[in-house]
Amino acid sequence: MERSPAYKKTIAFGLVCYSLLLTVSTSAQIKYQSAGVKITVEGTSNIHDWNMKSEKGTCSGVFDLSSTGTVTGLESLNFSVPAESLKSEKSGLDKNSYKALNTSKYNLISFASGQVTVKPAAGTAHTVVTNGKLTIAGVTKDVQFTANGVVNPDKSITYTGSYQLKMTDFNVEPPSLMFGAIKTANVVTVKFNLVLKAANNLTSL
């Protein structure tokens, strides 16, 4: 029996609606906030390597999660750390670093995401590639971060990764010590370990 065009359109529309309902019932958009932040800045000098560490940053994001607990999307991600919370084992390095970063005027180092891509891996593991704006010492640059993520058994999410940058790209003069006898290199590597936990369910899609 030949079906009319109107009948076929009705069936097609019903299938689309059903597919949408399946998506609605199996995903949710949830805001997460930092429960633990570890930042390490690693660099070299003409004498020895050095690092500065902080555990006082904050991070938040809005995630799309499937009913099985995997991250399927990331709507936004924001991060900041007080520059003077970064500490080394050398007070002289700290002092000169804060001077180079002009922390009396620009105390926050921050990142705000733009476009984000989530690539699934095994289990609840995934990779996040995010373009965004990184601000250091009042100078903002477009950057791209890659982070490895995993949803933990307690539903928290852990991200680890690193990013290499040149201090002079942010108008920061590499700090020196002992009247210039020790000179730090221009390139540093920022390593991060972030743990985020759900703050509240924003929207059930």
Describe the protein in words.
It is a single chain. With 205 residues, the chain is of the alpha+beta class. The protein has one domain: Beta Barrel (Lipocalin), CATH 2.40.128. Helix content is 16%, strand content 55%. The protein has helices at residues 5-25, 91-101; strands spanning 27-43, 50-54, 58-66, 71-82, 108-120, 125-136, 139-151, 157-166, 176-177, 182-183, 187-203. A hairpin with a 4-residue loop joins strand 5 and strand 6 (125-136).
Show the helix and strand layout.
Layout: H1 5-25, E1 27-43, E2 50-54, E3 58-66, E4 71-82, H2 91-101, E5 108-120, E6 125-136, E7 139-151, E8 157-166, E9 176-177, E10 182-183, E11 187-203
Summarize the structure.
By secondary structure, this protein is of the alpha+beta class.
CATH superfamily, called what?
Lipid/polyisoprenoid-binding, YceI-like
N-to-C CA distance: 39 Å
Number of helices: 2
Outline type: elongated
Portion in strands: over 45%
Helix content class: 10-25%
Helix and strand succession? HEEEEHEEEEEEE
Mean pLDDT across all residues, rounded?
Answer: 86
Widest sheet, order of strands: 1-3-4-5-6-7-8-11
The name of the CATH architecture is Beta Barrel
Number of domains: 1
Strand-pairing-aware structural class: alpha+beta
Unreliable segments of 5+ consecutive residues: 14-25, 201-205
Integer-rounded radius of gyration: 23 Å
E-strand count: 11
CATH topology call: Lipocalin
Biggest β-sheet description: 8 strands, antiparallel, barrel
CATH class: Mainly Beta
